[in-house]
Design brief:
The complex is a heterodimer of chains A (about 525) and B (about 325). Chain A is of the alpha+beta class and about 525 residues long. A 5-stranded mixed sheet of chain A has the order 13-12-14-11-15. A 4-stranded mixed sheet of chain A has the order 1-10-9-8. In chain A, about 30% of the residues lie in helices and about 20% in strands. In chain A, helix 8 (about 295-305) runs antiparallel to helix 11 (about 350-365) and helix 15 runs antiparallel to helix 16 (about 475-490). Residues about 1-20 of chain A have low confidence and may be disordered. Chain B has about 325 residues and is mainly alpha-helical. In chain B, about 40% of the residues are buried. The interface of A and B includes residues 136 and 242 of A.
Amino acid sequence: MRICLALVAGSLAAAVSVASPAFAQKQGGTLRISHRDNPPSASIHEEATISVVQPFMAVFNNLVVFDPKEKINSPDKIVPDLAESWSWSPDQTKLTFKLRSGVKWHDGKPFSAKDVKCTWDSLIGKADEKSDLIRKNPRKVWYSNLKEVTAGSDTEVTFTLGRPQPSFLSMLAAGYSPVYACHANGRDMRSKPIGTGPFKVVDFKRNEAIKLVRNPDYWKKGRPYLDAIDWKIVPNRSTRMLGFIAGEFDMTFDSDITFPMLADVKAQKADAVCEARPSNVNTNLLVNRDAPPFDSPELRRALALSLDRKTFNDILFQGHALTGASMLPPPAGVWGMSKEMLESMPGFSPDRDKNLAEARAIMAKLGYTKDKPLNIKVSTRNIAIYRDPAVILIDQLKQIYIEGELEPIDTTVWYTKVQSKKYSIGLNLTGLGVDDPDTNFYENFYSTSDRNYTGYKNPEVDKLIEQQSAETDRGKRQKLVWEVEKRLIEDGARPVINQNVANTCWDPKVKGLVLQHNSIYNGWRFEDIWLDK
Amino acid sequence: MGAYLTRRFLLMVLTLFGMSVLIFVMLRLVPGNIADILVDAAGIADPKEKAKIIHELGLDRPIVEQYGQWIGGLARGDLGFAYVSERPALEEIAPRIPISAKLAGMALLLSVLIGVPFGVISAVRQNTALDYFLRVISLSGLSLPSFWLGLLVLMASVHWFGTIPIYSNEPRSFLQEVGLLSIPAAVVGFRSSALVMRLTRSSMLEVLRQDYIRTARSKGASQTSVNYDHALRNALLPVVTIIGIEAAFLVGGLIVTETVFNIPGVARFLVEAILWRDYPIVQNLVMLIAFVVVMVNFLVDMAYMALDPRIKYAD
């Protein structure tokens, strides 16, 4: 069935490319993009930030990938990449890929199934002791169900799972899942990686630039169109915007334009093409449920009821952000709850007065009043996108007799502080690499996950997470996902304030760019982009 | 003089040694090390992965051993490996020094070329319209934050000329580089020149009231000769001090300008390295800056002697 789907998708893609005016696409040119900061390294597998994925995804290939022509990433929109086709075993625990032959790494060595095995062996801790391909793995939990990878031949590789997991293919299709070269070493992969992708890394200079050039031996004939991609690291956002307006850059960094800035950009560069889209990054509260005072479920409920999401949205996003729980809501989101469902959840009711009355009653019962408020610190990363919502939160907490004091934390030790539980309430941003329940629930809410920062533990929820993960019937799974969401909201596990929306802009001469609407981390292969000049 | 220079040299070595200990210890007192940050950047904290990185980087060795290794390497010209880029620290630092040095040099040159003459004019035309005008300009130079001024310059450039004078590509020629650096240098130099101008003015005013100036005038010396031959030379001593301090500041203090104009210089790199706790980069860059400061102080002291023959350094 999957093979058929892959073939159909492939045929459709070919048909689209033939049917479209291919003659209009021009070869050549350098795409100039501003980058917001220094990527910690170039090794996608080792990092968890768009700062790495956006520039370096073009260097690699995956086995499969979310269809780059589609705006919405979903399990039924996955197309072949280094794999020509794939098939599941009847018990849905073995996923076998037939790989392309004749593919070469940027250093000329041939790609084979051994590279696939080597990459995922490193990710699940089964690599040879001498291998230093990957020294840290922030997405360990993605592969907790992966038992073994075997190379049947140079062009066939099988992933063996502990139980059925329909999300597994979606994870492999993410920008975070490139295939690494087995013969490369970790240091090179972090500084000047090689891949099989459409662009080769020429240079990665910290504080300066990332230069990629066209891979002339790319296995996909006729691609990429661009000769080069020139990323300039410009940490100052105003300078980046002015550079884009002045024509120094052809494109902004992803989601770099806030709504207040958008008006400026459009006023000064009227022909700029700007697209607003959800980033699948949500602003949420980390509540330390292991220590007083928020070890009290009632207090956590009062906290959830105090949130005025509309105000957050109006101030920070001029009303463009989405209201949702931890999964992105439709239509951009594939798994999230509808508006109607959400409004029946605690804290999501549009009746703000009722929410506040209930929250105040809880606070009064717990002994807190206007004259005797609860004093806490609201900790957050000391950067604007974290601080700004934290300040609004502090203002809203006053309405339920909580006096918050902002505690800005040096961004470099933020997670250390969070994981050591030295906070009461933390304001946090969480991005999802794939709009998929497994990646979200296992990463952020499963009791044994490294990234379950609040230490949320609910055996029933763990069981539900496992059930939905193994459920192959899409409809049944959807219901289980909603049930998990409902439990998380009721438990105040990590109350989501907003699902963020931001703008990306480019010059009209940049063609072929399709932004993915339910994950900013996908769709950055750049092989279909061309310059009309 | 020889003994003085020897003493001075030994003092410089001692200062640099003290500085090396201070920066080495202070860096390690700041919460979080590179392993915390590398792991934090990935949003996880796996103790095993962290321990592996700490071991690889030698951060689990005794602190005295780490210090000895760094200083020993420094003496041999081996600055170690940058933790983040995993490249030799020298390769990371060396290309950035000329960029910052040229920017600082141009800014300093501008500040002297503008600050000293206008300071003199302001003093000799005290309480005239020109003096008031120059004082307002100098006050604005001191008051306007350079990041704000820099952004204004960029915005004006984009608005009026449709171009942005940022360092986006390596310049192909010396002239192009001068052109590229002149605007940020002017922005930085504006503040420094204001400082130099105000100090020159006050120093000149003080000197112009001295008896020997009256004597020179009574001898029939021209106003120009009085101002420039007799007064300025003596008024320059405090100005030279402040130029020395500014020169030292400019080597490592250009962070804002380098950020706004996107110049890949030393200052921006140093701040980035501090945030990442990239010890080899921070330690070596701070030592470089300390060396420059020590040398500039030495040169300023030598300049005193050249400007005022009464100053002699005793053996």
